[in-house]
Amino acid sequence: MPNPVVHFEIQSSQAPELQKYYADLFGWHLSVHDELSYGLIDTKSGRGIGGGISPADGPSRVTFYVEVDDLQAYLDKAERLGGKTIVPPTVLPNVVTFALFADPDGNVVGIVLSD
Question: Where in the chain are the domains?
C-alpha cells in the first residue's frame, strides 16, 4: 500500500503574520496552540489535507509529511538512497510521532507514524 501525504507545514520567523495572511487569503480557520505558537489549519472544505503554520528554528520552509509504519526503517532507507536524517523519531505526546529527513538535494520531508 502506498504511503499518503497526510500533513503540511509552513515554518517562518513571521509565523503569526503568516497565520493571518493564509487565513485571510484562503479563508482557512486556524486554531493557535499558544504554548507552541502552532497554528493548526482546518480548511473546513472536507477535501485535501490539513496543515499548520509555526515558528521556524532556522530558515523559512514548507514541509510535507508522509504516513509510514516504521519511522526508523524509512529514515534508514532515505539515508541509503542519499538522504540525511534531520530529526530522529520524536514523540509529541497525544499529538504525533514524527521524524524529518533531507533528500539528496536538501529538501526537508517529514514522516509520521501511522496509527
Answer: 5-113
